[in-house]
Amino acid sequence: MDRAFIEATTLLLRIVPRVFATDRLALKGGTAINLYLDDAPRLSVDLDLVFTQLGLPRQDALSAINDEMRRIVAALTADGLAARPAVTAELGETGLVISDGTTQVKVETNIVFRGTLLPPSTRTLSAGAAEWLGMDAQATVVDRSEVFAGKFMAALDRQHPRDLYDVWRLYQHGPIEPGMLSAFVIYLCGHNRPAHEILDSPDRVLPEDYDRALVGMIRGEVPSLEDLIESRTRLRRDLLQGLAESDRAFLAGFFACEPDWSLPVHSHANDLPALAWKQQNLVIFRSRRPDEFARQYAALVNLLF
Fold it and tell me: Between 144-157 and 161-173, two packed helices, what is the crossing angle to 10 degrees?
């Protein structure tokens, strides 16, 4: 195991209490999976956050996220750390880069998929992670089903070895759970890429240097590249085969710009800004490029039915 990853994870956990001092942010992604839901089979070097408050207009939500980032910077600076916001002209401060002088970690907030499907919960590190790292850090963590729904999206979209490792690790314990599938349906609707491109994404060549990208942060069993590729293939198959008829009907209606909110398990998902944003963009897309809209819709229907 690479010592640099241990140092980065230690720094990450040092900042966790400051990040989650309010209830406006919750943890998702690989850190949630590996340090809070599992016993640290691999380490993690960033915090992926969701802004939990619903009902705010987009600009107000961005302002609130910016406020949270500035709050965290002030607290970490007082702790003696170097913390600077990752600033963009359009979005302001939605992420952070934190350093203790030798190690650097990142904090990133998803500004599109705001809010959660299920209530987050306050968690301490898993027993195995706390014992191995010799520390604890309490965080607000997104529900397990929802965390993995987001992980499935990442694994099929960017296909990074770390995401595929997390899927492989899940499969070591059993199949995809129904709650993960129902949450995945909603996450698929809120993604910026066409749904058929996620469900039937072309294989990306995994990096030959996956030793650097992944292996150095694993403390347990190390999967081979072939294991990761097999997990990717299985994930695609299991997600498509596992969809209920109501899920398929909902997806077909949603991407036809006619969503039936009585169909999905999470019927309140229509409150999520990401899905409203997607619907608006689909309507515009259908109006401006009807032929391409029809082509993409046909590709999705062909996968679903």
Answer: 130
What is the chain written as a DSSP string?
A: --HHHHHHHHHHHHHHHHHTSSSSEEEEHHHIIIIIISS-SB---EEEEEE---S--HHHHHHHHHHHHHHHHHHHHHTT-EEEEEEETTTEEEEEEEESSS-EEEEEEESSS-S-SS--EEEPPPHHHHHHHT----EEE--HHHHHHHHHHHHHHT--HHHHHHHHHHHHH-SPPHHHHHHHHHHHHT-SS-HHHHHTPPPPPPPTTHHHHTGGGB-SPPPPHHHHHHHHHHHHHHHHHH--HHHHHHHHHHTTT---TTSSS-GGGGG-HHHHHHHHHHHHHHHH-HHHHHHHHHHHHHHH-
Would you state the pLDDT for residue 212?
80
* Predicted pLDDT at 135: 95
> Minimal CA–CA distance to 194: which of 270, 303, 91?
303
Q: Tell me how far apart the alpha carbons of residues 62 and 6 are, in angstroms, rounded to a whole number.
A: 33
- State the pairing for strand pair 104-110/82-88: unpaired
Distance CA 38, CA 171 (A): 13
Cα 60 from chain centre: 23
For strands 46-51 and 82-88, give the pairing. Answer: unpaired
Give the model confidence (pLDDT) of 9-50 as tens digits: 999 999 999 999 999 999 999 999 999 999 999 999 999 999
Instruction: Decide if pLDDT at 96 tops 90.
Output: yes
Positive/negative CA dihedral, 89, 25, 159, 30:
positive
> What is the spatial distance between Cα 17 and Cα 121, in angstroms, rounded to a whole number?
15
Rounding to the nearest 10 degrees, give the CA dihedral for residues 138, 143, 144, 148.
-110
Length of the chain, in residues: 305
Question: Domains along the chain?
Answer: 3-142 (3.30.460), 185-304 (no CATH)
